[in-house]
């Protein structure tokens, strides 16, 4: 990721919150003989761990494709992002840009045994199913089914050793310009992006 110190996101707690809010992540490995390998999986923050630690699983045979556990894994998390038109600035000259929040999280995964993997799967399902009226969990009546399907997945825990993260939300612009951008993102149009507008408003006090 390009080094822009003015946009650097260095607080591990804020990075953890990014993963909690946007758990669908990319995982990337460099595999000798194969080159780069990428997959997409949901991540949980291990709330019981010291330091930022991620929990997830891959479906077989992705553990072999990534050679999971034998080397570093890059996990990429993203928040809301989108195009920012210079026509919204009220300034001239100006150029377009892209606002975003992203984190590159690197560590070496620890492969989990079947019991821990089942626990992580149950936590993942409970995390997302908790939002629906009639949650279908991997416990109770579904426990036997869960034990049958766990063999098709490989769970892992990854303590994050290196964080490179950036929050670029027009902090370099005057407050009045940022307000115009937020309004424009909330209006109907080809680049309407209420989620990005909300993120900009939530961090309105930050400056580059």
From TrEMBL:
Instruction: Look up and give the organism this protein is from.
Output: Microbacterium sediminis
Q: Name one Pfam family in it.
A: FMN_bind_2
For this entry, the protein name equals: Transcriptional regulator
